[in-house]
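re: ur question from earlier - yeah i can do the single chain one, its not a big deal. heres the input i used so u can compare w yours
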Amino acid sequence: MKRLLWIACFTYLLIGLTHIIIGSLLTEILDYYNRNYTDGGILIACQSVGFLAGVICSSYISKFLGRRRAVIFAILSIGLAQMAFVSLIPWTWWLIIAVFCGLGFGIIEPLVGSLIIDAIKDKPAVAFSRLEVFFGIGSLIMPIISGWLASTELWRYSFLVLGLYALIICVIWMKVSFGSLDDKLMTKSIEQEEDKQTESTTFLGGKYLLFIGFILFFLIYVGTEVSIMNFLPSILISKLNTETFAATLAVTIFWGAMVAGRLGAGYLAEKMNYARYLMVCCLGTVVFVASLGFISSLWLGYVFIVLLGLMMAGIFGIALVYANQMLQGSTERNTSILIAAGGVGGIVLPLVTGSIMDQFPTMIVSLVLAGLSLFMFAFITFTKGQRSEQASEQLEV
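and the output i got, formated as tokens:
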């Protein structure tokens, strides 16, 4: 079990690295091809579309190939995409290959995540938080690697480093034995028979409203996180006339706080219980996102950004474990749909945020994001009440 968890962690490190690499090198890529930032936005959108398609298709690919083969296929698509990028293919091919690259880590995230939730019954939140830590580490170190290579005019070889790492992880998934879990990994759908029995009774039996609520929860959370990452420097520059370097540093501080928060998120959630932990973190998110609209100094802004990162750090992973406990049924299906909802939020909400930034003061952006985050707090409060009612009914029976 520990072997599976560690390999899953290093696989999440891969998708953290892959998720951020194009954005880290976007200036160098656009300069080389003599393209503008609109073209860069299209390139990132292509990868996002591929990611969303991968998440949606992941459970179907798993049923066709089996989980292990599906993960191997996805890692190979990432590795081969990086090898294509390092060869500096024509620009049109970048757009096509970016879709396949996004497809790869879109397949991996829900499959490996649901596998860990299924396989590790003792404190699953701790295990999933470890995956999130490695994802965050990947997002932190890739800009460092690519920035150093870019300073030596060797930026293209960032893709080579990532491609080689992907191939190593692929070989590990192909060769390593997971003991009693091997049969579970190779079957074309470990939950297929269970789903046939539970789908109509559990999922269709009054769970639709709850499921829609969780979809909106993940859409808002990921959309808010992506909006903060993309617009935080602009908010600081607009609000405080901050220099570009100091404003951009805020994103690194945010991710550093996210990684630090994820180190303890699982343990805190297990100790407090999932619903209470999520309520505290969602309420903290509301407070500190709103506070960004009222900051009067850069250092105060940094303090709020650290606190915001700590609050948001564990929400995604813990909410995913909590949702699967509340919804029951197919972990693989639930996980895929909820991560896909997050993917939609990551595309749509930043567009809305950008539009608001163009027309209103930054304070309005902070208040809108805080208002959306308030839904997350209200929804978790509602589910906590639902769970308490279910528990009391079971005791009476």
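The chain has two domains: 2-190, 203-396. not sure if urs matches, ping me
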